[in-house]
Amino acid sequence: MNRKTWLGAILVGMLAGCGGGGGSAPTVQMTGVVVDWYIQDALIFADLNDDGVYQPETEPSTRSGSGGGYQLHVTSDRPYYLISKGGIDTSTSQYYAATLIAEGHYDNITPVTTMDALIVRKGTHPMVADLIVRQLTGMDDPTEPDDSVPLDANPATNKHLLAGSRMFAMYNNALTEVLSQVVKPSEGFTEAELKIKLSRSAWEQLARRVAEEYTPGVFATIKPSTLQKTIQYLLAEYGVETEVGVTVLMSDALAETIHGFVKSSTSELSLSTHIFGDDDEGDRVYMGDVQDAQDQTIALIIQNASVTGLVPTIRIEGDDDKDEYEH
User: Per CATH, which fold does 27-109 belong to?
Assistant: First the structure.
């Protein structure tokens, strides 16, 4: 669903409600997929009160199917976000720890729509957020523009979106792994649950920094310094910025190495000769190999620069909504 149709449906409902005849909010059927690669059994809900926490009594929800597909009926007279939590990445058969988000006018939920939505939530105008994300993913490259494709298009159908999805996911993985060296779980809060919480924070703070760095007329990019500033924000969020220096956790060399690897591997992905769509199993195997190689390399880069045991740590409690992620 495009933004105009979505807002139009909401406006019709609002006008009906103002007519004195007891009009109700419009109901919209959302049909799409949740995909970094396809995520099965993810909890998908409409965040009607914009708190990021699923309210089963008031917020419609569903679970994604084997191909990441979902259908959801949403009744609302105001804009909202779609949120996807947990599930199984069908390309790797591994639990998917990240939270993905999309503005309610989008159908598909991906890492690209997540960055777009979070930039909007930081106060950026939606059209500017759209432009920033298009530039970050290469869709707005002046030499090869791709502005006819919506940001929520299935990444399997567009190499820029596929590379962009992996770029955002790898940066999120890297920031989460780096932060987990100093933020540890309290008793009863597992390492896996901790990664879910830290991943969500990493998404939020990276979007914050990307929005802050954007200058009209200057092509948006994520730089090594973007990663360092994001780590600074994460340390402040968890109350350890004074105990652990940013450059201890994210040195210039580490930031450069992460940035260089992500840039090169996503460029290779966008130039890949693999053709998607003809063989679902072949696509799944291909993306499984790609993601495994990328994620293992990110983990190795951070492991080689690890400061675990050399810096102070803090222990945090789990989230009230952690059970939402169970599958």
Answer: Immunoglobulin-like (2.60.40)
